[in-house]
Amino acid sequence: MVPEGGGPSLQVSDPEGVPAALRRDVGYLGRLLGRVLVESEGSDLLNDVERLRLASIEFRKEPTEARRRGITEMVSALDVERAALVARAFTIYFHLVNLAEERHRVRALREQARGPEPVPESIEAAVAEIRSREGSDALHRELERLSITPVVTAHPTEARRRSVVDALRRIAGLLATQEQAGASRPAQAHVERRLLEEITLLWRTDQVRSRRPGPLDEVRTAMVAFDETIFRAVTQLYRELDRALGPDDVGAREPASSAFVRWGSWVGADRDGNPEVTAEVTRATAAIQADHVLRGLEAVARRIASALTASTASTPASRELLVSLARDERRFPDVAASLRERFEDQPHRRKLALVAERLSATRRHKPAGYEGPDELLRDVARVQGSLDAAGAPRAAFGELQHLRWQLETFGFHLASLEVRQHSAVHARVVAELMGDDAQPTSTADLATLDRLARDGWPEAAGPSSEEAAEVIATFGAMAEIQRRYGPEACRRYIISFTRSPADVVAVYALARLAVPDGSLQLDVVPLFESRADLAAGQRVLDQLFALPSMADRLEARGREVEVMLGYSDSAKEAGFLAANVALHRAQADLAAWAGTNDVRLTLFHGRGGAAGRGGGPTNRAILSQAGGSVAGRFKVTEQGEMVFARYGDIEIALRHLEQVTSAVLLASTPEGERAARAGEERFAAPMDRMAAASERAYRELVERPGFVRFFERVTPIVEIEGLKVGSRPARRGERRDVESLRAIPWVFAWTQSRVNLPGWFGLGSGLATIAEESGGIGTLREMHQGWPFFRSLIENAELGLVIADMPIAALYMELGEDPEIAGRIFDEHQRTVELILTVNGNDRLLAERPMLRRAVELRNPYVDALSFIQVRHLADLRKGDLEPEEAARIGRNVLVTVNGIAAGLQTTG
To answer: Which of the residues are catalytic?
Structure first.
């Protein structure tokens, strides 16, 4: 329940179509913010905000030149300090609206779950569909190979400061408390007082980072999601699958399936282009992760122990458990004596309490601790077996099973650290060590590297440069982490821009130099990023596994191979449509290669949050993968803002994980694979023609003389590079061109300018190529109807186009002083929208996802207000005639608007 009431406020711009509960929540939070603004800055600020808000709403309804000029004059009349305050007010309003929408989504999920039918896209729905369509045996075959691996990355797409994120989490908690308080006036008054306090603190918190976060800051930020939601959400996920498989006796028997999620992390381990990530940082990251998971496991063990009060009379302990208990009592005699005195007839409780003591000792590196997670797993199994044998299966497979699942999922390392480095770095280091300026790409060099990887290096070999020493130290850190926390704690090594088998073998050779005894367990994962590299993936793998050492490694790993596909750089290189087609083709080719070579392949998808970087709903993306490329296994990056969007609330986190699990199961069935392959075989030729035309249009734009200058003038890219969003630089090297710019700031900048070019540009030209052929419109409609990949691609483009806004984008593109480039963008936008609507038969974009469209439309007037302020400041900065102090003040204001627009559009890149 949300209290009603008057007072100064920011309100919903257009309440029509907004659910009543959400409208009430947004209105309430708007009133609280309005009150805080008046209390903190006076009523004049709220009046300025309201005038701009109302003018933006009128411009949105009818974007005339007169209304545009009026808003421009209104914004120009604000001095720099007042413009900053107005921008901050809109930014905080967006943060609060996002929280209200999150709470409404949770309410909607709960309401869905009350119905008699399975919730769509849930595990229960997927299990029912597969069981009815293909039988129970087929379902269990899919479950046996099910494997899902989300990998958290530190890619800088979270624009909000950590202190802002923390404040919003506290406000979200208060909103949940308020809902639980019901009609109690004292409870509601208390919550409202706390909300006003937190919103006041949020208002007084600087929205812009004063310093760039370091890698370990990013590690600690990632731990928040693990501590508060992920650690608990996985047990609920497994329980949902268990319930779907056997609802009548769930919790009274052993689970019908095993833990199938494993977490990975690049945070503190991804050193590609980030000199701050060192061997010491990676070592410290592993220690931080281990500390968090061991504390979590210990807390769970203590909680369960306190409730496990079954007595010996009713629930006698097994002999095996009593022997194990006696061993633990010798390890902790003082604790054991206290436990015996208080709980003499509760052996299961005492055992689990001593398990917690051993976990505490493990965390503190004491001799009485566990040697590894397998030893703890045996202890948990002993307690479960004893309880089950004593006739208490619900005690054995209830909360105690959750502890077991958490252990199986997270081990003692929480998330497997995955090191990433650029292939060019390894090439330079190998050349230095071999005393050769040539990069190791020839056949002779490949044979030499293979021998070094297998037999080791001459004793004289050793690094001389700082770069080489750091690479060697990284492998040493990986070996140390494995010795302390187990092989899964840090065994994968990703090679950015893999272009040849030598790039892979070089890593194994360097690892052998760093750890001469060969004890380092290493899985080197090639990352194919450019369109050419994606196409060459099969050839590289064939050459790689023809090498003796690599053939041996393949057998030793049970013929399992992992390959990563890069979405971001391929899209920046070839454009939206051509990159998506290249990625889909690579998936199909690699799946075929795996089938031919009897290899169990895992494709690792390096997807971002935005459509221009492979974003969009993950479950729909899985269902649109190439036939045979999923095969029960899905691995994907979870980047920046998406970590908190998906895992900030436990119910939303569970829903996301359920949707992913459901999609992986359905895509992996024979029927799912047949449907995907049918579209690929039937529509490959027209899709290739579309991709080629799309890429031509895209390349003609980005390679046009003056395009880089245009891009730097019409977007806040220069300012974004100084935003201090993450520890990694925005560019590779010092060149100022599109190629050197990282994909994330490229997408981020275009999103800010409301062009959102990477999310759609070139698609219209591609569609037009087929539409102009005889019967081409019919072909496109058949593709949309019958091919999940093409339908998903169109839906993602629709979202990109809805986020884009040409009347506002025109304000930015005037700054570019190049009408020809701007004209091409406008023309392609119009062409793309018209052809998408022709293909899907709708009268507006996202017509089939009205709530998503409505969310964007509701925010647009508020985002427009920030865009007008941002354009004003960019115009001042682009003139280049400001005093340094004034330029710094205005530049800081631009960053405030960047944060606000990112919050309003709920995307950075």
So the answer is: 155, 572
